[in-house]
């Protein structure tokens, strides 16, 4: 089966924006004021959306989510149009009371960069332009990955979870039966060379623009996957990334389930990297199993102490976007976007806000 990807979730953003601008404008809705007792610092509760006109955005607003992680998808326009396109994206979300605090997945096509093939220098130049233009509209975080050829990968998306909800699963045996991708064999050494080349090219621009580059771990964190080397599979690998180009803008998307599958002590790791100001974005989710075979859980029924994780993030100085990632599909929802249906996220946000309120952890 075709693996699900975040780009699949976000594709069509620009087309949606264009359609929104041709449609009658919605009345401007100011963001809700910060409720009494909340704090303008701390966690920013966010969700990932492609279109500001979707039902999911309206639902998110109703449950108190005011921040969005967007997809830029600037590959559809010329460099000279990046600024205008991003400004329209920002304004379209502002119309419905949402503030963009980051983009997820590469803002421009980056597959040649990741594979290290002809054309990567052109993609890198596009990337530099995108960093500058995102910075100009006040978006200061890019969640990017370095999974070449394959994005985040699951081998099944209809596994029964609690009460018959549908969730995703990865099984290395099933993945191996699919054979090599069109890219054949790509070594880990080659992947390290490609990542180093990319970082050395773009980090000076990120430093100048104040753009936090939040590197997402490989999902699943094992190597190789269908012949392609995966290098972001341990805390040691992340330390190597930070040492390759030392910079306050070179940091982490702490997708805690992936670090758990690596076999890391995620409690001490979160404490270390938050204290060092290296965690720029949190994917709050849980899984059951090992890196070779696991499935996604609801946020309240996995093996991780989620209360403890939120305490660690907050106590050690994390301030920024957090989103509940990969929720099961619940009754009444189509399973056409596995992991990204809104129903399970409503539960997740309520669960997170309940913990934060009970422990008086600052959030907005």
3D architecture notes:
With 364 residues, this protein is an alpha/beta fold. The chain has a single domain (6-22, 37-359), classed as TIM Barrel (Alpha-Beta Barrel), CATH 3.20.20. 38% of the residues lie in helices and 17% in strands. The protein has 13 helices and twelve strands. It has helices at residues 6-10, 13-22, 55-62, 82-94, 111-115, 120-136, 172-177, 188-209, 235-244, 256-261, 266-275, 306-315, 343-359; strands spanning 43-49, 67-70, 99-104, 141-144, 156-160, 166-171, 212-215, 250-255, 279-284, 287-290, 293-296, 320-324. Helix 2 (13-22) packs across helix 4 and helix 11 (266-275) runs parallel beside helix 12. The chain is globular.
Sum this structure up briefly.
The protein has 364 residues and is α/β, with parallel strands linked by helices. It has one domain: Divalent-metal-dependent TIM barrel enzymes (TIM Barrel). The protein contains 13 helices and twelve strands.
